[in-house]
Design brief:
About 70% of the residues lie in helices and about 5% in strands. Strand 2 and strand 3 form a beta hairpin. A two-stranded antiparallel ribbon has the order 1-4. A two-stranded antiparallel sheet has the order 2-3. It is mainly alpha-helical. Helix 2 packs across helix 7 and helix 9 packs antiparallel against helix 10.
Length: about 325
């Protein structure tokens, strides 16, 4: 039945909205991260010097993690569905709930907001450092706000919308495999001495699997901006102009919509581990960045997620009989 995919999407999203991401050692994403860390440990002990062998080693690790994640999730859901259809549905919905990160993104970004409004710049910088890769200790209030809005906009795609899309396409197994790709990129997809070649496959694969979801996210964010008082024309204008203003082929898709909807100039040069990295700007500085823009970015995130859920549920009922195999 088409309805069960709709049920899974709705239940998973509602659970994340009200409960958020549970922090425990058995969290599926933590287990995936632990497996990747185990593979990284073996790689470091091997002291591989050849770039080709580093690349092959990283590719093998990535493929193993993704395949094992898919197979394990498939077996778990199959096992519970074999016991009882409703039990299987509940378990799959819970597994999908673990994959969606809307509330955790809101909670972490709002910690920055609350620190700013209380005048605690040091605390705001420290909270920001938990969710971004750039150096934060030299940022002023406007820089902190911009960085926080950017990370909400960027992570909307791979933390919320893409998981929902992969749940729709292939249920918990495919969505969990997607999160394995995402986690691999976040752990080894760096351009530095350790991971330049070892993490290259993971980084490029993450770009590929997020290519379409990022663009769907941008479209739904434009629609969502109309429901939360965003500047829709500005969102469209900046998206069309600045959607490629990023080293990543995907990150500027949602960042550009957010920048246009809020009237902010995002992007620009940033320091990473003490090194200045030059990046193009995204958007126009129509408004000065204020702490309230963090709240606005979160409202836009939830509006976009809600639009996505409504569209996916509507499509599943329209198709009548669509189920993944």
């Amino acid at each position: 039945m088409a309805e069960y995919i709709a049920i899974i999407i709705i239940v998973a999203f509602v659970l994340d909205c009200f409960i958020g991401d549970p922090q425990n050692p058995l969290h599926p994403i933590r287990l995936i991260g632990g497996s990747i860390a185990w593979g990284m440990g073996i790689y470091k002990k091997a002291h591989i010097k050849s770039p080709t062998r580093q690349f092959v080693s990283g590719t093998i690790l990535a493929i193993m993690i993704i395949c094992l994640t898919y197979i394990a999730t498939r077996l778990i859901t199959w096992g519970f569905y074999s016991i009882n259809w409703w039990i299987g549905l509940i378990v799959e919905a819970i597994l999908c709930y673990f994959i969606i990160a809307a509330k955790s993104l809101k909670v972490e970004s709002m910690k920055v907001y609350h620190a700013l409004v209380s005048g605690d710049l040091h605390g705001a910088r420290n909270n920001l450092a938990r969710i971004v890769g750039r150096d934060t200790q030299s940022l002023d209030e406007q820089g902190i706000v911009k960085a926080t809005v950017e990370t909400v906009a960027e992570n909307l795609s791979d933390g919320v919308i893409a998981p929902l899309i992969f749940i729709f396409i292939g249920g918990a197994p495919l969505a969990m495999a997607y999160k394995a790709v995402n986690t691999l990129d976040s752990m080894i997809g760096y351009r530095n001495e350790d991971f330049e070649y070892f993490g290259k496959f993971a980084a490029r694969l993450d770009d590929v699997v997020n290519f379409i979801p990022a663009r769907i996210s941008a479209l739904f964010m434009i629609i969502g901006s109309a429901f939360v008082g965003g500047h829709v024309k500005g969102a469209v204008r900046i998206y069309l102009r600045d959607r490629r203003n990023h080293n990543s082929p995907n990150s500027a898709q949602t960042e550009s919509v957010c920048a246009g909807a809020l009237g902010l100039c995002l992007g620009g040069d940033s320091y990473y581990h003490g090194v200045l990295v030059h990046k193009p700007t995204i958007g126009d500085a129509e408004n000065a960045p204020l702490p309230e823009h963090i709240k606005a970015a979160n409202r836009l995130m939830y509006a976009t997620a809600t639009v996505t859920v409504v569209v996916l549920v509507a499509i599943s009922f329209f198709l009548r009989g669509f189920v993944y195999v």
